[in-house]
Design goal:
- With 137 residues, the protein is mainly β.
- The protein is 5% helix and 38% strand.
- The strands form two sheets. The chain has a seven-stranded mixed sheet. The chain has a three-stranded antiparallel sheet with strand order 1-2-5, with no helix packed on it.
Amino acid sequence: MPEKIYSGGCVCGRLRYEAVGEPIYAGFCYCSDCRKVSGSGSIPFIGFKCDRVSITGDSRETRTISTNGGEAVRNACSTCGSFVFGGARGISDWHTIYAGSLDDASLFEPQMAIFVKDRVPWAHVPEDLPSYETLPD
């Protein structure tokens, strides 16, 4: 059976990715950083080891201090500005794909909700999803 392929990219199509196989993790993040980047109540994410992801096109990398005190690296298309994935290209061990950038959004299967302590009242957590105040152990 062939491995599942997750493909997607930015609004203008100049920044693209393809991730192969099953993700390491997937869910919704409700931290204030993700809310601000997404302009929404949470950001849906899917994590893959870097050797399972190929990325084409130019991206603009931003680095900030994350909610948990580490460094958050986010990549947006250098042309249209759409945020597409997290992790430093060529350096990180994993990439976090922003599920809203998937060509086939039905491939997103959330497994958890993280940083729910920062959730705003109007951002709902699906009832059947394991929820964590910060990051799971």
